[in-house]
Design the sequence.
């Protein structure tokens, strides 16, 4: 990254750590980064875009950590859980800010400069989950790939809900990581059942492939 972007990133990162998103202002970021406000907005269109800039890197690091943890695991449930768990664990460090990041990532608008990068990271994570499912099951072919991709999207949805669970008060007697592991197991089992049906000619994939 160029020098100005590096200073803006560092300033936003530090202010998010020390002040939190609600109390951070774009003026504080531009002052700390020693750039004009107009320059700041060339690198991040809004305050929410600054959040995406910083948390995209955290997301990327968590995905990399998950890939390392999943490498060599033959059990598909454990491999997939290892892939997604670092995202959940990292988000717990600043839960409110991580939830805001998820909101802006999934429901932000096209004018945000860093949203597409974040969405590509989601796609990369889902691709990693799908690849782990296919590798563990030793499945191949377009039907298997389609089923794995759908399972991966559902697993990301489970991750998203697990991240938000502590802030909603839902299921207070169940740890978010425990719930996520159980939900991953259900999704993986469903993928394997669907795979068996596909191989035996009982697949319903063709009827829903347009969705």
Sequence:
């Amino acid at each position: 990254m160029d020098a100005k972007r590096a200073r803006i990133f560092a300033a936003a990162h530090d202010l998010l750590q020390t002040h939190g998103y609600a109390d951070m202002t774009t003026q504080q970021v531009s002052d700390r980064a020693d750039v004009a406000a107009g320059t700041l907005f060339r690198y991040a269109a809004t305050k929410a875009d600054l959040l995406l800039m910083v948390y995209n890197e955290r997301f990327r690091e968590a995905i990399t950590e998950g890939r390392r943890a999943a490498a060599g695991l033959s059990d598909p449930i454990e491999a997939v859980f290892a892939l997604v768990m670092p995202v959940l664990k990292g988000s717990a460090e600043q839960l409110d800010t991580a939830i805001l990041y998820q909101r802006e990532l999934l429901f932000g608008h096209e004018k945000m400069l860093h949203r597409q990068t974040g969405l590509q990271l989601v796609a990369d994570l889902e691709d990693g989950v799908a690849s782990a499912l296919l590798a563990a099951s030793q499945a191949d072919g377009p039907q298997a790939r389609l089923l794995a991709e759908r399972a991966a999207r559902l697993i990301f949805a489970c991750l998203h809900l697990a991240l938000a669970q502590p802030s909603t008060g839902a299921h207070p007697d169940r740890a978010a990581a425990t719930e996520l592991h159980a939900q991953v197991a259900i999704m993986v089992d469903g993928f394997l059942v669907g795979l068996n049906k596909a191989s035996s000619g009982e697949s319903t994939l063709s009827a829903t492939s347009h969705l």
Q: What stands out?
A: Residues 194 and 203 are 7 Å apart (CA to CA). Residues 203-211 have pLDDT under 50 and may be disordered. The chain has two domains: 1-43, 47-201.
